[in-house]
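Narrative summary of target 7.
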Amino acid sequence: MRRGLLPESAYAWLPGVLIAVLGLAASGWLARQQAASAEQVAQARFARAANALSDALIRRLDAYTEIAFGLRGLFILDPALGRAEFDQAVQNLQVEERLPEVSNIAFTRYLRREDKAAFERAVQADTSLDPRGYPGFAIRPPGDRPEYFVAHYLWPMAGNEGVHGLDISAQPANLASMRHSMRTGEPVASAPFDLVQYTVAPTGFVIRVPVFRAAPGERRAEVRDANFLGSVAVTLRVLNLIQRLETEGLMQGLRVTLSDRGPSFGQGGAGAARVLFTNALPEVAGAPRFSRVIQVYGRSWQLDFVPDNAFLSAAEQATPRWVGIAGVVIALLLAALVTLLVRERQAAMARAAASHLALEDSEGRWKFAIEGSGDALWDWGVADGTMYYSTRWKELLGHADDELVAHYDVWVRRVHPQDLPAVLQRLQDHLAGASEVYEAEYRMARKDGSWLWVLDRGKVIRRDAAGAPQRMIGTLSDITGRRKTAQVLQDSLRDKEALLKEVHHRVKNNLQVITSLLRLEGRRTERPETRTVLSEMQGRIGSMALLHESLYRSGTFASVDLADYLAKVVQQAYGALMGPGAPVQLHQQLAPVQVGMDQALPCGLMVNELISNALKHGFPDGRGGQVSIALQPLEDGAGWRLEVADNGVGLPAGFTVEDSVSMGLQLVSQLCQQIGGTLALFSGPGQGAVFAVSFQVEQPAPLVMPDGPLHPTEP
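Modeled conformation, tokenized:
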């Protein structure tokens, strides 16, 4: 039977052919859609990466400005701030570690013509940092001008010697930014110029913050001109700034051209743009581009981006192709199924429709964690409680810039309840004038509920006629990491102390074993002189063992109480040579003093030799008497005197330690030299003998960590 123009059997193939044709067309369409979707994803990621780099550049420029503001605060507090204080303040900011891209930080001094000669002489004689001063200092370039803007203080000096003394009148870009900052009192960025300290890629710019004696808020021009001190300038080489962003992974997949479009203030056009940096390849027609203009303290900068890769993974790039292949395979399979199962065509088509799964784009979000550099700043109006919090202050607490009300109560509510009473007490003491500077370490609550350890420092900078505080400024530093590190170091120190204690214990035991071996060897020999030598060796080794035992029992390994140690040495030496009821009495007068092992051991050996010598030779034939040992400070307080004396038969006339053949007395002389002391001998036939050693006590180095006392880390 025929149905139309085609045989009946042909109709069994027709649905399959139609499905195959439609499936192939659909596969091609899906592949194109997937390719377009992937391109949109790549473009969105490209734009997001470009915006992230732009935002990171803005935040980093803000960080440099906050450093300049912090240094300006020092000049507001002390307009006569010296070179050494300026250098120390920059080092405290840890600029070299945290912001290595900064070329230099300078204080540019404003001078009039009549002050030039005196200023040059003062700088030449300034030895606060360099004992040689700066004898060759002169304002450059030379010439008589009505006013000068001179690079006075400079950090670091090394590598920037050509900047010291430079009058920025020689650099029009710098001079223009200085005059604008002087007029407006606002921070300003200079036009790009070539840095004199670089020969390759010298393009740089300066961010300046003006410094006035007048209180902020004064807007009259004559007040500003009369109180203008100069400006704090942060100089940056553009190449170093871009390389820093690149090391943080912010330029991956991007090619960028950074251009300066001119000032955003004043009259007239911006002028011709100057390229500050570019790593862009030759432009390819149709390649995606992204541009953004940012405002940099009175300058307009333009960033032009082109992608360096497709911003898609290999799997994402292959997805459209695999979608097309999968569609073809599915279409053919469906055609075969429809051909074989014509009666179930609707069900097969439903399954085919269900098999076209929706493809969802899976994007990984890139998180650029850019932390602000420098300390957080705050400015408190004490009378009304209003406060200014810098962006860094809010970032430390995990808040956005507009989430916190600038008020004193905002700070109080975030201080840990356990720390608040002590912090408020220190603050009140400073407000009352009891302390020069307010400083406190405490915990603050972050937005997520965690606690942040901070170091808070501030100072009242204005009081009214009655002395009541009106304004206070300060900084806030995150010291959580330091606290955690301190705890780790404290635990490590505790382990090392336990190890040292075990070492001293084992050394003492080993010395006692050696003493026992010498005692056994002495019992075996028949020669009296050998027994004498072995006995003396036992005493000396016993003195060393007593030192290690004292260190082990006291638990302090850097120092020992010399009086306590010598008392044990004396008792040991006396007990070894004198039994109960001996006619020679022992008298001790030992004042306590802490010394290190390097002095304690020689003193113990000297006392052992001198006590043994007095008991052996000072009282022959059972003669009675007294042996005394004294350790006392000298009358002038410049040292200590260790003295061993007896009232025995004394020494022969003309006797000197240098001429003595006694090994013990020669050892005493050498040990005295070892501790840097002087040995004095007083004796005569029948007058007894006095050996006195005068020496300086060297303070033992404590077993503490280099950063000072350790504090436990609290939650």
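DSSP finds 17 helices and 24 strands in the chain.
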